[in-house]
Amino acid sequence: MYEEKLIHSTPKSVLFGAVVTDSLEQAADWEARLQKLPAVAGVESLSRFLREDSAHKLELVRQIKETLRPSGFPRPTRSLWTSRS
Predict the structure, then answer these.
(1) How far is it, in rounded angstroms, from Cα 53 to Cα 45?
(2) Phi, psi (degrees; rounded to nearest 5) at 51
(3) pTM for the full model?
(4) Which of the 8 DSSP states describes residue 22?
(5) Which contiguous run of DSSP H or E holds residue 4?
(6) Considering only CA atoms, which of 28, 39, 42, 37 is closest in space to residue 85?
């Protein structure tokens, strides 16, 4: 019952995927590739926030990562996806 409320509470899908990259260039590449897939309804990327004044923003991201480290989220792995450069 709760899952039905969740599913019907938003116009967006409750199914999603996440991609972690090593650079802004890779992020832009993945963003473009994902947007072309017919099964993907939309792409939301953080890369647009890092394009300008990236040094300061990347430092903030590092600080956030350090703050959240104790939360216990597992480190992303590359076992499911590999970049085809």
Answers:
(1) 17
(2) -70, -40
(3) 0.52
(4) S
(5) helix 2-8
(6) 28
Question: Mind spelling out the 3-state secondary structure of 48-85?
Answer: HHHCCCHHHHHHHHHHHHHHHHHHCCCCCCCCCCCCCC
Domain locations in the chain as residue ranges: 45-70
Q: Which residues contact 14 (CB under 8 A, 6 or more apart)?
A: 6, 7
Residue 83 CA to residue 29 CA, distance in Å, equals 10
> CB 27: neighbour CB atoms within 10 A?
19
The pair of structure tokens assigned to 14 is: 């409750």
Written as one letter, the residue type at 81 is W
The pLDDT tens digits for 49-84 are 777 777 887 788 889 888 888 777 676 666 555 555
Q: Which amino acid, 21?
A: T
Residue with tokens 């116009």: 11
Residue 12 per-residue DSSP state: S
What pLDDT, on the 0 to 100 scale, is given for residue 36?
94
